[in-house]
């Protein structure tokens, strides 16, 4: 295997890893954007939830 072939394989693997990491970051951002508002709204709610009242007693 000559040097050019090894370098091209290494670069190809690096691009694959970068693409996978980029995809994971996008999925995490989308899930965070979908889930975080629900958590914030649940904790900021002024309506008492029966389970919360029982937990406070």
UniProtKB/TrEMBL annotation:
Residue intervals passing through the bilayer: 20-40
Keyword set, alphabetical order: Membrane, Transmembrane, Transmembrane helix
Protein name: Uncharacterized protein
Organism of provenance: Muricoccus roseus
């Amino acid at each position: 295997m000559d040097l050019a072939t090894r370098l091209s394989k290494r670069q190809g693997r690096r691009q694959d890893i970068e693409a996978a990491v980029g995809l994971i970051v996008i999925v995490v951002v989308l899930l965070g954007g979908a889930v975080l508002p629900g958590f914030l709204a649940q904790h900021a709610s002024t309506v008492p939830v029966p389970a919360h009242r029982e937990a406070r007693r």
